[in-house]
């Protein structure tokens, strides 16, 4: 019961963990490489959601000073995630470039088929 | 539970449903489009969490550029997952 | 691709998108936004142009060599500005708030923040454009 | 087989993370450990110390500017890797070289 | 002097940013610029090491912001020692790469190769110095892209595939590291390592499960990147298909940098709480033992020389983790010394294998008959590396194994002494046949020659590294004093 209460209270954290696991599962089980990269993106954004929700405080304003608001949410997680987002985009771009090249060499983007082709070549 | 929390829970369930859909769609192009929707909802969630900077960046980077890159890749490779 | 309506609408939209991108970038330290978001919007505007007209047309407007040079330049400017702190006798990346001699909380008020944001924004814009163009031009086999 | 293993790992991780979530500091409460002197200074002093209104911008370009330099380097590494890979494995030259070597 | 560490990082970054523009039309000067910069930086790092030895650890506040607000570099013994290893091996690799690279990477791509190499180098140095968890994460990401890039730059289908596999798995690892970072930030409210450690007791009292899970995620996340045993599946492909200089740097240094980062994080952040989290160290010990045996057994079954060396790396990472998980001072000294020794040996072995590929064009172990007569210097250096790997007294691999064994006895676990002895025999089972086959077999292998003679730059690099192996085997005193200081300052926190 205590656990259920804790989860209900931290529903944002719980949702981000669920999404994280969905992305993780997609990455582990699907053999299609593009699907793997999609899973990787979902996993990363889930972690980002988790970090951003750490910084949120109920009833406080966005961290832009100068208006009427006196109390602000924690700005540090947002600043970190801004970095994380860009990192994610560069990783995705590089992975996709490699996938295009894999397709040109092997004629497939399926990890299992590639493994088969390589074992036949040997 | 007040209105705003209900709204948050709705958004979060949307996110989970979108993530599941991305995992289960066999058509990669549809999966990428659902992923774009996922990114946009994520941007709205971040707006709701009072983090407008990253909401903006996610809307431009995640929903815009990542989706475009995925689409280009799919157009160069195969569209369906076996 | 050669749809006149699409092309006209794109041409009408482009200035607004680009103005918005530059606004986000330059005003990043006063309102939500910043180099990364603004740069991405700027980059997307060029991608839109490339999609409605043709990649070659876009390459004429924004040559690839220039884009690649700008990527290096943006990052180098960042390092150079950081080194100014060392020259001033402090640590690397130390901000000198009187660098642009503006009032705190105004456009020029953040010391080296405005130049850094613009450098990063331009770098992001050209990175996005280069990435997209190069991936698009891969032949299909 | 691999699916079963992956599902087992996910379920294990899920149970652990759910237990962790129930133990985490309450969401959106003002007195969390993360709400400490660090962001007090960021929020309270940013106008005097840095001269900007957007606190996040102040953090990424001044307080933690080295991270942003690293981020620019990540972006640069990404684009350099993409360009180099696409150019190295250019199919036209690949076919040409293959034809040369028989 | 205080600016030097940050200068080392940003000069690498700056040259990396400038190279694609500078060398767009003439890629040739790129190599010389990199070599010059590396020589300067190696000298600077060595100078800072002397300075720290004299003055003690110092901290550098980037942007002049004091720690909990800004990012700080903590320049301590362990970081400097690792940075010196990184720079030394990189220096050898770039001199070796001067001629070898032309055989494996398209000459028009050399400046891209050096760009990615420099980014990798800068990030490795950054990981060594940084005292901020998120900063470490950013550098880890740069290192990921750089490492995958320098694998994929050889025009061969296997390289692209290996690079992609590596990229996907290390992104998985980074995701776990970021999650661990987030949980730590949530329960302590800090990102600076020293401040996290300071707030750890209260966090441990209030949220024990979260602290434990963050440690587990950290170990798994860095474990993927450092090729800890069941998570090593990317390593054989990536390290064997890459160009020889990349293999040397990836296998010789990069995996160890992640191990060092893990050691530093575990010891500074969790510190004395680690003894209350016995399961984690127990699991680590078990995995390390499995890694030592499984890596060696897999290596015995390989027919390709570079694949065999890659599996051997898995086994040797097991030694390092064994030393770390035993938690006694001598064991950690053994582990950290092994980081140095293995970096030296493995990069040398990969370069020797690369030299064989460069001159003869084959890499199957069965073709090595009588190679000792055709390439005496290369195979002699290979023999030194092999003997050192086995742990023959007089070579540097022996020293670290002795310290590991003493550490195991200190910890009251003599069973690990047996592990070390048996694994040495296993090492002998796959390294020594190559050497005997090359020198004492009367048959001759395939008489193919791609080039008549090995270039001087390759020979000289190999000979110098081989000499260093023997030197540190015979006169390990200065090295050990340094490592002991590093370990003492690490364990004291």
Looking at this protein, list some descriptive labels:
heteropentamer; C: 141 residues; mainly alpha; E: 493 residues; two-stranded antiparallel ribbon; globular
Describe the structure.
The complex is a heteropentamer of chains A (122), B (82), C (141), D (102) and E (493). Chain A has 122 residues and is mainly α. Chain A is 76% helix and 0% strand. Chain A has one domain (2-60, 70-121): Helix Hairpins (Orthogonal Bundle), CATH 1.10.287. The termini of chain A are far apart. The mean pLDDT of chain A is 89. In chain B, 51% of the residues are buried. The model of chain B has no long low-confidence stretch (mean pLDDT 90). Chain B contains three helices and no strands. Chain E has helices at residues 4-22, 28-55, 77-104, 110-129, 133-152, 157-188, 193-206, 208-225, 235-241, 244-270, 278-300, 305-326, 329-360, 371-374, 376-390, 396-410, 415-440, 456-474, 477-492, and strands spanning 58-61, 72-75. The radius of gyration of chain E is 22 Å and the shape is globular. In chain E, 64% of the residues are buried. Classes of the chains: A mainly alpha (122), B mainly alpha (82), C mainly alpha (141), D mainly alpha (102), E mainly alpha (493). Chains A and D meet through α1, α2, α3 and α4 of A and α1, α2, α3 and α4 of D.
What is the strand tally of chain D? 0
Determine Rg of chain E (CA atoms, Å).
22 Å
Give me the strand/helix succession of chain E.
HHEEHHHHHHHHHHHHHHHHH
Poorly predicted residue ranges of chain D: none
Structural class of chain E: mainly alpha
The main sheet of chain E orders its strands as 1-2
Provide a compact summary of the structure.
The complex is a heteropentamer of chains A (122), B (82), C (141), D (102) and E (493). By secondary structure, chain A is an all-alpha fold. Chain A has helices at residues 2-9, 11-29, 33-55, 75-106, 111-121.
Describe how the helices and strands are arranged:
The complex is a heteropentamer of chains A (122), B (82), C (141), D (102) and E (493).
Chain A lengths: L1 H8 L1 H19 L3 H23 L19 H32 L4 H11 L1
Helix pairs in contact in A: 1-2, 2-3, 3-4
Chain B lengths: L2 H22 L3 H21 L3 H25 L6
Helix pairs in contact in B: 1-2, 2-3
Chain E lengths: L3 H19 L5 H28 L2 E4 L10 E4 L1 H28 L5 H20 L3 H20 L4 H32 L4 H14 L1 H18 L9 H7 L2 H27 L7 H23 L4 H22 L2 H32 L10 H4 L1 H15 L5 H15 L4 H26 L15 H19 L2 H16 L1
Antiparallel strand pairs in E: 1-2
